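Protein Entry — a single chain follows
Fields — amino acid sequence, structure tokens
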Amino acid sequence: MPAAKGKGAAPMAITMGDASGVGPEIVLRQYAAGQIVDDVVVYGDAEILEAGARLLGVDVSISAIRDPGTAAAGRLNVVDLAALSTADFTPGRLNAKAGSAAREYVRRATADALSGTVAGVVTMPMNKEATQRSTPGFVGHTEFIAELCGEPDVAMMLTTKDVAVAHVSAHVSLAEAIRRVTPSRVATVIRLTDEAVSRLRSAPRIAVCGLNPHAGENGLLGREDAEIIAPVIAAERARGLDVSGPYPADTVFYQAIRNDRFDAIVCMYHDQGHAPMKLVGFESAVNVTIGLPIVRTSVDHGTAFDIAWQGTAFTGSLQAALDLAWTLSAGSP
């Protein structure tokens, strides 16, 4: 069980996510199991959580509050946005109203993190399709929080106990991902990765993936690796970072995890990093947005409508996300 915050310290925020998905269910089950204590406030809808507790048959005392500073000990404190009612509770079904509400939970929690009212934000999953029905331009948590913070240069990073993986691009098409492999963007993500991982372990060893198969195979399979990525790595190494590559993506994860050769990997696009990380750490990986002025972590899974509110969704990812958020909010190791 995590330790409670120190006296006078700000609590950690959890946004409950889409009400139709597993997010609020996992929050309730973790609280009922004693894994969430008084150092946490939930941003969401108290009425939905109360209905969900009844559905799950768990005994959870919920306190609806307006401000984290009024949280009561011994209860699940919910900064209640009152965006949904019991009539809007549709377990496992796409619900545009729930998607819109989930976005507002994130907006309010991010604002409170920026003001220092909460120590950071841990996000439970949103359903992009549900949210896009009210906000057609919505892409995802990472992009939305970056916009709220006024920080265009951020990156998505997944972490496990073995390795951290950052992405040059995330929620874009593969064609657009290739266009985004530019010297300035690759350099930015390498630096953000070094800064973030340095808060978890000293002097991180960073590997950089190539864009093309076999990292271009000396130009036979593409020139981007030699002409764009390699010069950036050399420049960042000259600045004092322990960074090397570009390496073929099909072997670098083995080198990092099995041979303990690297602490972090910079990948060029979403699936290059996500596919192996979901294989090795689906229930334990944590999503971190690096480059923000606030701490933001997330569970590394989706809304899982197919199993939502059935009491079967694994809960360990939330604990891992909370633990990492507290570590990051404390600063360097």
Q: What stands out?
A: The radius of gyration is 20 Å. Residues 218 and 226 are 7 Å apart (CA to CA). Confidence is low (pLDDT under 50) at residues 1-8. The longest strand covers residues 40-44.
